[in-house]
Amino acid sequence: MPQAEAASSWKDSLATGEKDMQSEVPERAVASFRQALVLVRKQGGSQEDIDKCMLKLASALALTEHPGEARALARKVLLRRTNKYGSGSPRLSPVLMNLGSIEESAGDHARAMSYYNQALKITEKSYGPYSPEAAGALAGLGHAHGKLGNREEALNHYKRAMTILSGDPNLDAARQLQKVQHDYGDLLKGTDDSNNDLIKDFDRDILDQSSKDTVDDTARVTLRPPIRSSEWQKQSRFELQAKHEQQTDENEQVRLRGIRMPASDQSLAPAYRVVNEAVIKQDRFAAGEEQYKRKIAIDIDALGPHHPSVGNDLAALGQLYITKGRYNEARPLIERALAVYHDAYGDGNLLTINARAMLASCEFHLGNGDRAAGLYRDALAQAQKSLGPDSMDTARILNELAYLYYHQGQLEQSRTFYEWAVASTERAAGENNPLLAACLKDYAQVLRRLGRNDRALEVESRAGKILSDIH
Question: Which of 45, 139, 216, 343 is the most buried (most CB within 10 A)?
Answer without folding.
Answer: 139
